[in-house]
Amino acid sequence: MGRIVLEGLEFYGRHGVRPEEGRLGARFVVDVELWVGFEGGGDRLEGTVDYAAVYRVVAEAVTGRRFYLIEALADFLAQTLLEQFSRLERVRVRVHKPHAPIPGVFRDVYAETERIR
Questions:
Q1: What is the pLDDT along the chain (117 residues), one digit of tens a residue?
Q2: Which of 72, 75, 83, 92 has the smallest number of CB atoms closer than 10 Å to its CB?
Q3: Beta partners for 9?
């Protein structure tokens, strides 16, 4: 089983529970790990998963939809990717909210989910 990783995909989105998060928006970072049996598939796109198409799915969800929870966004992305890419065997999604409205000093907040076909 091979693995393809899209790491540090940055988008501007309007996710969060607070009204100002929906109004003002913020930066979100997404990591996607894709497990696909590409070994022995040759040197053709049909033997793997098109990560440019994966990027488009992630971008559309993060920028075009609103979720109150980053957990819900991560879950939606994982499920959607499994549904749209039949060669995927397993997917892990992390949604980072580096500027979460937390009263204190922190490096990052993220939600992670994993789905297996």
A1: 899 999 999 999 999 999 888 889 999 999 999 999 988 878 988 889 999 999 999 999 999 999 999 999 999 999 999 999 999 999 999 999 998 888 998 999 999 999 998
A2: 83
A3: 30
Which tokens in the block code for residue 68? 């109150």
DSSP assignments along 71-115, one per residue: HHHHHHHHHHHHHH-TTEEEEEEEEE-TT---SS--S--EEEEEE
Catalogue the active-site residues.
Answer: 97
Q: Which amino acid is at 22?
A: G
C-alpha span between 11 and 89 (Å, rounded) = 26
Q: What global pTM score does this model have?
A: 0.94
- The phi, psi pair for 76, rounded to 5°, reads -60, -45
